[in-house]
Amino acid sequence: MKNGDADGFDPFQRVRPSGADVCGVGRCGRPLAPWWTLRFEDTPKGPAMIAPVQNAPSTATAKPSTSNEEEARLAVAAVIETYRLAFLHLDLDHLASVWDREHEPLVYVAQEKEEPIHGWAAIQSYLAALPEHLDEVLSKVLDDVQIDVLGETAIAFFTSRSSVKLKGHPTMKYEPIGHVSMIFRRTPEGWRAIHLHESTRSAQAAEVIRAMKANPRSS
Q: I want to staple 47 with a disulfide (CB 3.0 to 4.6 A). Which of 11, 12, 106, 185 is the partner?
């Protein structure tokens, strides 16, 4: 899978920040406050857009972040955007690049798997098999991205919305929505993921919710 298009556009070019001067993360020219949420999506001009969704209501007790924390959040946000773009383009090299391959234990809880994936060898095998099951990723949007930096560790939470074509099912679109938690560790090479957990509602829970909506209990 090539990284750029016919005009030489590199979708990953804008997710390689140095410092906090990243136009598009948070707001251009303004620091990324700890209570901001982000939205990662494509635009008609191409991918790699990182745009603010909303600001939480300001409060007198909100603790201002330090410049180091802001830079760390920006760096983690760039890794998350690399993950999103890599999945969108089924770019296996960039998907692998977000992981700290030397760390133990590594855990990946994929939403379609019954059991967690442990260790880099198993995670690498899972990633390598994605093109065998996915014909094309039509869209990948990450909503309400929240990042909390705790020293040498960072935690991110977001909602993932995907639209994909499955191999062997040309007329079927699979559109999973999941809540995702990621844990990152600061390494000499930068922030890298050591834990990724994707959660979706079970079929049973979804059926119960549909039944409750169809037959609401009278007050």
A: 11
